[in-house]
Amino acid sequence: METNKTPTSMPEHLSALLDDEAGSFEQKRVLDELSTNDALRDKLSTYALIGETMRSSDVGKPMLNLDSSFLAGIHAKIEEEEQYHDVQIAQVAAGQSARSQSWIKPLGSFALVASVAAVAVVGLQNFQQSRMAEPSALVASNNAISKTMIAQKDQLTENEMSSAKQVSAADLASNNVNTNSEPMAATQEYAQADTQTRSLLKRYVDSHMQYASTAAFVPSVRVIAYTDNQ
Amino acid sequence: MIRFYLENKKKIKMKKLTYLLLIPMLLPVTAFADKAAVDLLNKMNQALHELNYTGTLAYLQGNSLSTLHIDHSVVNGVEGERVVRLNEAGSELSRELKGFSLSSIPRIRPEMEKVYSFDMGRENRVANIPCRIITARPKDRQRYLQKYCIDTVSGMLLDYMLVGKSHKPVEQFMFTTIEIRVPESMAATNSSICAAGDCALQSLSANTGTTTAILDHSITTVDPIQNSITKKPSKIISKQVLRQVSHTSLEDGWVIETVPLGYEIKQAPHLKEQNNNGDTRHYVLSDGLSTVSVFVTPYLGNTPMEAVEINSGALNVVTQQKGKHRITAVGEVPEITLKNLVKNLRKK
């Protein structure tokens, strides 16, 4: 292999130096050459940069941020960090406990495959039986299912009509655990405020501004802007 | 060259060790900057309530720019404020904060550093007054980034900006002219604070020791509005009676199941509804810099109420029906914070 060859050219010596594999004589020779050879110095920077890039965990991004300060780089990294919350931490913890019982995995996979095969066999048998059964029985069965579905739908509609927003709140309750996602933005529709609602909200904004912890004049400016905007 | 690409574990370990050694060296520098930033913010909070100041303020809200005249004074311990919009509707608002005391001034508390990092920035100049930039950078998406430029001599806030998650300003307040008058009582207070060792900012100020009644660098404001203001009658707002509630359990069985990190219920003022629908419960949550109000109002309407959301600069309003109540959240925070609060508010 190429790695076993003794370096013969100056770039190879340079490469060996960077890999900490050059002998003391080679080191001295390369360093002497570097002090006089501009092209070799450029090569050194290129090799160093390639090395940093390859060691970088982020594909396509150099590990060293050469254009900004070290602290700025840290801040940029923090900004890029994904936010972790209780639910996600719980999920991670669950994942870790699952990993710790790694012997269960193969057994679980086997059980899953066996279950799928069993369901497929039973399903195929039922399908063949249903094809052989009387068409009227099939219609009756379908009617029964349809009636049940209509009854359920009627019940749901009645509940929804009586307290539409309570249903909405219950839906939200089921999504309660995920605090950082935006399920409401996706599911909740927001309407334009009517005059009465605007008047009420204006009153709430006034009341809120009395207790706003921001700088003294800021709440007053916001109240004026809000009033004029509405 | 293949040899070059092979990872050398020993070298990487050495590099990691070098970074680990570098971090403790940087910590004292950043800790000092944080301390100075927090001190300056606290000084600003105090100055904004204690100083007498008059000036013209440019207010940028999205793409809309307006100018306002601000007049703030403390007379016999009563803080008064008058804000007049100089363009468009010319609206005016007067506030009188009775019972003003030093203890009521918000202070940056150590626990706030769980949700914000405070950084001291470069020196800038606003309204021809040198000021120091301070950034309160949120550690999650439940609040805005806040950027201040504070006159280190008087503590006056000259420029204030809130930045949203897309790194664009959602709101900016900037004085174009300002006259600052320091009451004699405050000059004495500042001296005592410095004597107590709270003077990390002294080194940052180019004009340390300036505690005269009227600051040298203040610019006298031209007051062109005396004849044109008061298009609308001004309004006096005063503080109302407060109730006591626990951290998350409110009244009448209402509970906030998940409060966003850093927020706490600070106050529960009483608000009487005008439409006789019953009492409105008002709860004020704050993380120290951002405030959210939650209003719980009985809803007796026959038709289901439609959910409404309103945005005005950094201010967001979300209202929706929950059972037989209207829940409204108002705050200078991202709308997702309000939506999560409303979502997590339930009646047990």
Automatic annotation (TrEMBL), chain A:
InterPro entries in the cross-refs? Anti-sigma-E_RseA-like (IPR052383), Anti-sigma_E_RseA_N (IPR005572), Anti-sigma_E_RseA_N_sf (IPR036147)
SUPFAM superfamilies in alphabetical order:
N-terminal, cytoplasmic domain of anti-sigmaE factor RseA
Gene3D superfamilies the UniProt entry points to: Anti sigma-E protein RseA, N-terminal domain
Gene Ontology terms, MF aspect? sigma factor antagonist activity
Task: Determine the domain of life of the protein's source.
Answer: Bacteria
Region forming the signal peptide:
none
Every copy of the Anti sigma-E protein RseA N-terminal domain together lies at: 12-92
What is the protein name given in its UniProt record? Anti sigma-E protein RseA
Q: What is the lineage of its organism?
A: Bacteria, Pseudomonadati, Pseudomonadota, Gammaproteobacteria, Thiotrichales
UniProtKB/TrEMBL annotation, chain B:
**Keyword annotations from UniProtKB, A to Z:** Periplasm, Signal
Which Gene Ontology molecular-function terms are recorded? antisigma factor binding
Q: Where is the signal peptide?
A: 1-33
Instruction: Report the principal subcellular site.
Output: periplasm
Sequence ranges assigned to domain MucB/RseB N-terminal in this UniProt record: 37-96, 106-183
This protein's source sits in the domain of life called: Bacteria
Which residues belong to any copy of the MucB/RseB C-terminal domain? 251-345
> Is Ribonucleoprotein tagged as a keyword?
no
Give the CC-aspect GO terms: outer membrane-bounded periplasmic space
Query: What is stated as this protein's family in its record?
Result: Belongs to the RseB family.
Question: What protein name does the entry list?
Answer: MucB/RseB-like sigma(E) regulatory protein
* Organism expressing this protein natively: Cocleimonas flava
